[in-house]
Design brief:
With about 250 residues, the chain is mainly beta. It is about 15% helix and about 45% strand. Strands 10-11-12-13-20-17-16-15 form an 8-stranded antiparallel beta sheet, with no helix packed on it.
Length: about 250
């Protein structure tokens, strides 16, 4: 074996050693955790269980340890969870991919489609996008505590949409208010395999949460079955107030 061969083997060995070390170091990234000491908003991509990426997600963190993600592109709540806030490692480590992850087990309460839609009949399916609705996000304002009131236009209506954590951290309360009304508009509160009405609550059996509707007698919520799934709808007229409560 000549001197050149020894040199080549030595260099290759050194490359393999240092390369392996670098790879090992890359796999031991210190997580970038977003902690919440006051109300906070963070924009990022959020991936849902359906493998759909929410590209206009705004996650709202609360010191009460209940957090949620809002899809500003559809006017829809998509995730709710309690405990820690967000792991931003995928977004901020190295070059990043723009996404963050809820800490702990998040409940998917929406599927990133427009939550308010006009239905020809009660057997009409919800559309997967905003085509025909005139949906247009109008940003948001912050209240004195730093929490957002989202605004958008849809079906010719100006809508204000705000969500607040319920004292004690048992869930969230959402209020959606519009100026004026349009016929045959419905708000989809939930979609699941099974929705059961019991003791003044709508239990979303396979998602570990329940829904209560303010002024239920006047709104007359509807449970319908579409393509093998159940949906909880209320006619969208004026103001809708409802709460999403953790079952545990």
């Amino acid at each position: 074996m000549n001197l050149y061969s020894y040199f080549f083997i030595a260099c290759a060995s050194a490359f393999c050693f240092t390369g392996g070390s670098a790879i090992a170091q890359e796999t031991k990234v210190e997580p970038i955790i977003i902690k919440v000491e006051r109300n906070i908003l963070l924009r990022s991509f959020i991936d849902l269980d359906s493998a759909k990426r929410v590209t206009h997600a705004i996650s709202i963190g609360s010191p009460l340890q209940v957090h949620y993600t809002y899809d500003a592109d559809n006017g829809q709540l998509v995730l709710l969870w309690k405990g820690g806030f967000l792991d931003a490692t995928p977004m901020w480590h190295d070059r990043g991919d723009g996404s963050s992850r809820p800490l702990g087990r998040a409940i998917q309460v929406g599927n990133a489609i427009p939550q308010i839609q006009q239905l020809a009949t009660l057997q009409s399916e919800f559309k997967k996008d905003t085509v025909g609705s005139g949906f247009k996000p109008k940003g948001y304002t912050l209240d004195a505590s730093g929490l957002p009131v989202f605004k958008y236009r849809t079906y010719g209506l100006s809508v204000k949409d705000m969500t607040r954590v319920i004292d004690g951290g048992q869930g969230i309360r959402r209020e959606i208010d519009s100026e004026g009304s349009t016929n045959d508009l419905y708000l989809c509160l939930a979609k699941a395999n099974v929705i059961e009405q019991k003791d003044g609550k709508y239990i979303i059996a396979d998602q570990a949460y329940s829904i209560t509707v303010a002024d239920e007698a006047a709104l007359k919520p509807i449970i319908r079955t579409i393509q093998g799934s159940q949906e909880l709808l209320v006619p969208f007229q004026g103001k809708i107030i409802y709460s999403i409560l953790f079952n545990q």
